[in-house]
Design goal:
With about 300 residues, the protein is α/β, with parallel strands linked by helices. Helices cover about 30% and strands about 30% of the residues. The strands form three sheets. A seven-stranded mixed beta sheet has the order 10-9-8-11-12-14-13, sandwiched between helices. The longest helix is centred in the middle third of the chain and has 20 residues.
C-alpha cells in the first residue's frame, strides 16, 4: 500500500486544533512535532514552530480531500501553512518520519533514543528507546517533556508513599507511543496500566515496551479510564491528552487515585489551564505545581 503524508505548520494552539481535526480522518491519529529544523529550501518561521502530520492510505482520497477542506476552514481562524502532501511507497513511508527525530535529553537524566540511532550512554543516563511510528509521544512535543520531567522529579517521593517492596503503581491515560509508561518503569514504578483508545497506538506502545524490556511492569489495554474499574488502584494518574478530555475525566481520575496520590496532567494550552485546575479542584484534587514550556502547561495535583 502507498501512503499520502499531509503536513501543516502552525503555532501551538493551531497544532492542537489541527491534530484533533485530522484524527477524525485517519487511523492512528495525527502527530504534533516541535519543529527543530526547517524543511529543505525553507526558513524556520518562529510563529509556526509546530508541524502536524497525518498519513492517509493512497486509496483513501475521499477522506484526504475532506481533511484538506476542513483544514482550509480551520485556517480562517488560526494562522497555519497550506497543507503539503506527498505520496510514499510503503517502504518509503516506514522511513520517512525517521529523519525528524534525534537523541533528546530531558530533565536531569532522561534520554530519548530513537531505536535506529546509536548512542553511548553516560553512567547516570536513563535511556528510553523509542520507535514512535504513527503514535503520539516522541519527546519532540513540550507536553511529553513536561510529563517526563514531572515523573523524574516525583518518582523518589512516590516510592516513599507506596508499598516499599512493590514500588508505586501508575495508570497512563492516552499512552500513545508508550513513552511515559516506559519512563515511569525505568524510574521505579512496579505496576503500570497503559491505556489508549486507538488500536495503532496500542500496538506501537506494545512494541516500544518490548524494546525497553518493560513487559513485566507495563500492561497495555485498549480503552480509557473508568471510575469503577480503576477505583483506588493507583499512586499516580498520568494523562497527556487535550484539556477538554482531562476535564471530562476528572471524576474518574480522582476515583482511580489512592490517598495520597498524584495526577500529572498535560496536553493543556496555557489559556485552558485554569479550566483544568477548576475541574480537578472540584473532585478534591489540589494543584501543587504548574510548569510551562512555550504555550503548553503541565499540572501536578495531589489527592489528600
Amino acid at each position: 500500500m502507498n501512503w499520502i503524508e499531509l503536513a501543516i505548520q502552525t503555532d501551538a494552539e493551531g497544532a492542537e486544533a489541527a491534530a484533533a481535526l485530522l484524527s477524525e480522518y485517519v487511523t492512528g491519529g495525527a502527530a504534533i512535532e516541535e519543529t527543530i529544523l526547517p524543511e529543505p529550501g525553507e526558513t524556520l518561521d518562529p510563529a509556526r514552530t509546530f508541524t502536524v502530520r497525518a498519513f492517509f492510505p493512497a486509496t483513501d482520497r475521499a477522506n484526504l480531500e475532506q481533511a484538506e477542506t476542513s483544514l482550509w476552514h480551520l485556517a480562517q481562524l488560526r494562522e497555519m501553512s497550506a497543507p503539503r502532501t506527498r505520496e510514499l511507497a510503503e517502504e518509503d513511508w516506514a522511513e520517512a518520519w525517521k529523519k525528524y527525530y534525534t537523541i533528546l535529553h530531558v530533565g536531569q537524566h532522561l534520554v530519548v533514543k530513537p531505536s535506529w540511532l546509536e548512542y553511548a550512554p553516560q553512567p547516570d543516563d536513563i535511556v528510553i528507546e523509542l520507535d514512535p511510528g504513527m503514535a503520539f509521544g516522541t519527546g519532540l512535543h513540550p507536553t511529553t517533556r513536561l510529563c517526563m520531567r514531572a515523573l523524574e522529579n516525583y518518582s523518589p517521593n512516590l516510592a516513599k508513599v507506596s508499598e516499599p517492596s512493590q514500588g508505586y503503581k501508575m495508570i497512563d491515560v492516552g499512552t500513545g507511543s508508550g513513552i511515559l509508561s516506559i519512563t515511569a518503569a525505568k524510574l521505579g514504578a512496579r505496576k503500570i496500566v497503559a491505556l489508549d483508545t486507538d488500536a495503532v497506538a496500542v500496538e506501537t506502545a506494545r512494541r516500544n515496551i518490548a524494546f525497553n524490556h518493560a513487559e513485566p511492569i507495563v500492561h497495555i489495554e485498549q480503552g480509557s479510564l473508568d471510575a469503577e474499574k480503576h477505583r483506588d488502584q493507583f499512586d499516580v494518574v498520568c494523562i497527556n491528552i487535550l484539556a477538554e478530555v482531562i476535564c471530562e475525566l476528572a471524576p474518574a481520575i480522582a476515583s482511580a487515585l489512592k490517598s495520597p496520590g498524584i495526577v500529572i496532567a498535560s496536553g493543556i494550552l496555557d489559556y485552558k489551564a485554569d479550566t483544568v485546575v477548576e475541574a480537578l479542584n472540584a473532585v478534591g484534587i489540589d494543584i501543587i505545581e504548574k510548569n510551562q514550556e512555550d504555550d503548553w502547561v503541565a499540572l501536578v495535583g495531589r489527592k489528600p
